[in-house]
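Ticket #223: bound-state structure for 5-O-phosphono-beta-D-ribofuranosylamine.
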Amino acid sequence: MTANFPRRGVVILISGRGSNMLALIEASRTLQSPFEVTGVFADKPDAPGLESARRLGIPARVLSAAPGCERAAYDRALAAAIAELSPELVALAGFMRILSAVFVDAFEGRLLNIHPSLLPDYPGLHTHRRALADRARRHGATVHFVTAELDAGPAIIQGAVPVLDGDTEASLAARVQRLEHRIYPLAVRWYCEGRLQYRGRRAWLDGRPLEQPARMDDDGEMH
Ligand code: GRF
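RESOLUTION: The complex was predicted; output attached.
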């Protein structure tokens, strides 16, 4: 599909299934999308999302870390490979390597991540398990700008769902993911339309710093 305006290039990094990657690709293929996905990189050769991207005609490359390879050396190589595509934005979508300042600095202000919790709650791993163990009543996902501090960059939009009696890790994860697939394309669209920016270590939307991230509920309503 060709648009009659230039679309901004987005590169996606994955380590696994890539369902968020697919949501972004799908959103990019609508007539009015301000962005196109120009490449996918994975750090694991067996990431199932690689094949899904290729089937959709998106160039997808593996860049695995050689044994003993220093983090900074890997990050420099990855940054250089991505820079060849000159993307406007880099979107982490289930990319399971921690990226060092070498990488984050190279893409400062144009690097997004989606994290499966309502940050600042539950940074790190096993977020659904931890929310269930705490008997949390609300849980969700956050799209945020990436800074060198893990899962701590300015939040842009959150998708919030109720935690239901009888939820398992899998049922809760599935409910959260349905919203992930809506909020991530929305944040990328805002960025590529020029509505969303990173300035002075804060996220700005429509010319104002975000005091709170935008919020989407289970029913798709924005708050
Ligand atoms: C998602 O839950 C996302 O929040 C987290 O990693 C998971 C990736 O899932 N960062 P998928 O590969 O996009 O299905």
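RESOLUTION NOTES: The pocket of 5-O-phosphono-beta-D-ribofuranosylamine is lined by residues 14, 16-20, 93-94, 114-116, 141, 177, 180 (CB under 6 Å).
TICKET STATUS: resolved
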